[in-house]
């Protein structure tokens, strides 16, 4: 049976991949307790020991603002690690699935970005992810390089959980209204990954499917619109909050300065993957209720 090794198995996407990937083969999960991924010799030794047919890398250095001060730390995980995985895949004829981000683009375009657009990141995190993308392509390995955006899940830290906590503890708050993107459920990313791998594993010319794809929910919203939707849905689900969506104020990014500059337009065109793999990617609102109910059931979401 084919062997799949999953790195970053405790992250938002990694956790959902633990659910979707076992359908495809023998899944071996690797979290920090097994290998510190900044130790590249340990990573190489682990790959030689496990000999995977498919490597799925959901691990990342995702602290966008911290990366401005610790760019080398971000590069270690987002680029040097990825180079080791890609070179192993190239030499051993394995497939590599790796995730990247809307933050590889500068967001100056008025249109959704396509896979043909050239990366031009605004911040250190985006630079490290763009370098990781380059390492995958330069290795020549068979790959799925999946760019996603604005991930949420009931697990880990994300915008949806922050908004629910603010709405439960404050009577009003402000959210940025001049950055747009597609809120994307970690479970959607995991399901699409499994569907694409299934197609690849059952294709006679699977190399033709190797490439970069945008894996985001359809449609888009600003952070402000997304926050209002989250709160209104939480209210209709009966979650006890201190305010409603009408108590959320729209502000511009310039009123909410952060260490790392964010792109204004984070929209990614997802038509390439829909066409190449014959799949339908639903609107971003589709999975929100489900995750909101999961978050609201957690005792600690307000802390
Ligand atoms: N989150 C977003 O909004 C977003 C947006 C666009 C693209 N992406 C991309 O999507 C992918 C998945 O993101 P995510 O949100 O699921 O990430 P996440 O929740 O932050 O998970 C990242 C995982 O990487 C692991 N990791 C980091 N450094 C490690 C190390 N030195 N050794 C071992 N494990 C290490 C973490 O382990 P610990 O749990 O032990 O810390 C964590 O489980 C990433 O490639 C990310 O860049 C995410």
Quick description:
This protein has helices spanning 12-20, 40-50, 71-92, 124-139, 159-169, 186-201, 223-236, 271-277, 288-297; strands at residues 3-7, 26-30, 54-57, 95-101, 142-148, 151-152, 173-176, 180-181, 184-185, 211-214, 221-222, 248-251. It is of the alpha/beta class and 303 residues long.
3D structure, described in words:
The chain has 303 residues and is an alpha/beta fold. The protein has a domain of 209 residues: Rossmann fold (3-Layer(aba) Sandwich), CATH 3.40.50.720. The protein contains nine helices and twelve strands. The strands form four sheets. A six-stranded parallel β-sheet has the order 2-1-3-4-5-10, with helices on both faces. Strands 6-9 form a two-stranded parallel ribbon. α2 packs parallel to α3 and α3 runs parallel beside α4. It is globular, with a radius of gyration of 19 Å. It starts with a strand and ends in a 6-residue tail after the last helix. The mean pLDDT is 95. The chain binds NADP nicotinamide-adenine-dinucleotide phosphate. NADP nicotinamide-adenine-dinucleotide phosphate binds next to α1 and β4.
